[in-house]
Amino acid sequence: MEAHFELPPSAWVQRWIGLIRPGGAVLDVACGSGRHARLLARLGFEVAAVDRDINLFSDPPPRVVLTSADLEQGPWPYPGEKFAAIVVTNYLHRPLLPTLIDALEPGGILVYETFALGNERFGKPSNPAFLLAPGELLEAVRGRLRVVAYEDLVVEEPKPAALQRLCARRERD
Ligand SMILES: C[S@@+](CC[C@H](N)C(=O)[O-])C[C@H]1O[C@@H](n2cnc3c(N)ncnc32)[C@H](O)[C@@H]1O
């Protein structure tokens, strides 16, 4: 997938920040240039940010711990760690989804937004491997997380794209 260095923080991510436990640890998966990690750190969260190319994220602020890891070839870089929220945008590696769910603390939330089938009409990504099938994010969390909100839509801003978006919470034990 191409990187989107110039994008502002996602409106979907911003919408659900109020649900994250104040001061909690937040994980930004495939963080790229760190648009969400920076925002979350500014809001007082302790942020773990991971990407295979950490050079994309220049000058991470003090509240961000940036880790270089290949999430598709290497071991999970946060074994045993639990997060108050996990944010994933514009990235999809299906086998990682159960690991992300396991890494949520009770009450923790998963905020996910990425491209869906139909996006090929607008440009990249157009490879079905990187595009969610209808309902796929819902299926991925079924029985594990309680869905707060889900959308499957075409947006015009910040650029035309077919997206799925999910916010889901891990129930307290
Ligand atoms: C389209 S960018 C999205 C970046 C960021 N999440 C955002 O929305 O601004 C996709 C990111 O996934 C990262 N990535 C791709 N494959 C990866 C892998 N196997 N392990 C870790 N990061 C990966 C890329 O380096 C890139 O930063």
List keywords for this structure.
173 residues, alpha/beta, seven-stranded mixed β-sheet, 4 helices, 15% helix, globular, disordered N terminus, binds S-adenosylmethionine
What can you tell me about this protein's structure?
The chain is an alpha/beta fold. 15% of the residues lie in helices and 31% in strands. It has a seven-stranded mixed β-sheet. Strand 6 and strand 7 (161-169) form a beta hairpin. The longest helix has 8 residues, at 35-42. 35% of the residues are buried. Mean pLDDT is 95; it is low at 1-5. S-adenosylmethionine binds at residues 1, 3-4, 7, 30-33, 35, 51-53, 56, 70-72, 89-91.
Task: Explain the layout of strands and helices.
Blueprint: H1 11-16, E1 25-29, H2 35-42, E2 46-51, E3 64-68, E4 83-89, H3 97-102, E5 104-115, H4 136-141, E6 146-155, E7 161-169
Bound molecules: S-adenosylmethionine.
Quick structural overview:
The protein is α/β, with parallel strands linked by helices and 173 residues long. The chain has helices at residues 11-16, 35-42, 97-102, 136-141; strands at 25-29, 46-51, 64-68, 83-89, 104-115, 146-155, 161-169.
Number of helices: 4
Distance between the ends:
37 Å
Detail the poorly predicted runs. Answer: 1-5
SS-derived structural category: alpha/beta
Helix-strand sequence = HEHEEEHEHEE
Radius of gyration (CA) equals 15 Å
Strand content: 25-35%
Task: Write down the overall mean pLDDT.
Answer: 95
